[in-house]
Amino acid sequence: MARPKIALIGAGQIGGTLAHLAAIKELGDVVLFDIAEGTPQGKALDIAESGPSEGFDAVMKGTNDYADIAGADVCIVTAGVPRKPGMSRDDLLGINLKVMKAVGEGIKAHAPNAFVICITNPLDAMVWALREFSGLPHNKVVGMAGVLDSARFRHFLSVEFGVSMRDVTAFVLGGHGDTMVPLARYSTVAGIPLPDLVQMGWTTQEKLDAIIQRTRDGGAEIVGLLKTGSAFYAPATSAIEMAEAYLKDQKRLLPCAAWVDGAFGLKGLYVGVPTIIGAGGIEKVVDIKLDKDEQVMFDKSVDAVKGLVDACKGIDPTLA
Ligand code: A3D
């Protein structure tokens, strides 16, 4: 059987890392697309030349022509600009909305059957716009944010508790911004919920609150350190986890920015919720119960996402 085809729209920091990971994991042949001439070609060739040492045969192609993504099984979108120190994700809205229009039209014309994972910020609004511009079914267009935010939470918790990251599960829901909702009650060490661990004296509520805030600020912490761009290793790994779940029909339960229409009392909005990803794309939105405080935080996050979607409609009247 032919290898699956993975199209990466945007060959910058995340795009290049995605290509390298997809090759090493032998997820499929990779097409790297970018408007910058030479960048996707150079990265594709560089990664292909790591094949003999790494031992993969996946084909790497760099291109500036959308026709080369034809028939892609998965498209991962990072095209656009990342933030610089002092910028919020929302400051990227105007410029990245125009990019989503071009990318959405390219996918619609050349890869309408793909499972599309959007990473471009501000994430929840951009994945919504990308879906609108591409016209693909909602279950085939999803945003990557919750897997990364949860991974950051899991990393900080594993350091705090001195346990393997593999034994820490965590859920971060809501929009991918300052209002994201790390859910302590649904986060565990080997099944023991975080509030129980506080009661057991493994940590204090103050320390847990500080970790939750550090998770919310996780992206900004890295932007502040790098100064020239934003995080790319962990974002790429998170998106590859989602792509693999689709390509291998793994039925993974992962928090993603998915189209929610009915669950969580929402009527048609892209926002971070628990989902099941398998061969059908987003096969299910898992409608977990939130307590009063969690609901207040989730509602605030939903309002922030709605504000960004309205701003998109104000900028591009074809979206209204
Ligand atoms: P960067 O290294 O600048 O790569 C972006 C690439 O997009 C560049 O190579 C550009 O040439 C290319 N590009 C610009 N316009 C177009 C276009 N119209 N068509 C095709 N390619 C184009 O950025 P990056 O890879 O570090 O980040 C990419 C995006 O991901 C940014 O918007 C970040 O804010 C976002 N991001 C999201 C997360 C989430 O968790 C959601 C995390 C980290 C970064």
TrEMBL record:
GO terms of molecular function: L-lactate dehydrogenase (NAD+) activity; L-malate dehydrogenase (NAD+) activity
CDD domains attached to this UniProt entry: LDH-like_MDH
Domain Lactate/malate dehydrogenase C-terminal as annotated: residue spans: 148-306
Catalysed reactions listed for this entry: (S)-malate + NAD(+) = oxaloacetate + NADH + H(+)
UniProt-listed SUPFAM superfamilies: LDH C-terminal domain-like, NAD(P)-binding Rossmann-fold domains
Listed GO biological process terms: lactate metabolic process; tricarboxylic acid cycle
EC number: 1.1.1.37
Domain Lactate/malate dehydrogenase N-terminal: 5-143
Positions of NAD(+) binding: 10-15, 34, 96, 119-121
Active site (UniProt): 176 (proton acceptor)
Protein residues bound to substrate: 83, 89, 121, 152
Residues in the signal sequence: none
Keywords, ordered alphabetically: NAD, Oxidoreductase, Tricarboxylic acid cycle
Gene3D superfamilies assigned to the protein according to its UniProt record, in alphabetical order: Lactate dehydrogenase/glycoside hydrolase, family 4, C-terminal, NAD(P)-binding Rossmann-like Domain
InterPro entries hit by this protein: L-lactate/malate_DH, Lactate/malate_DH_C, Lactate/malate_DH_N, Lactate_DH/Glyco_Ohase_4_C, Malate_DH_type3, NAD(P)-bd_dom_sf
Residues forming coiled coils: none
Family: Belongs to the LDH/MDH superfamily. MDH type 3 family.
HAMAP family: Malate_dehydrog_3
Entry function: Catalyzes the reversible oxidation of malate to oxaloacetate.
Protein name: Malate dehydrogenase
Organism: Phaeovulum vinaykumarii
Gene designation per UniProt: mdh
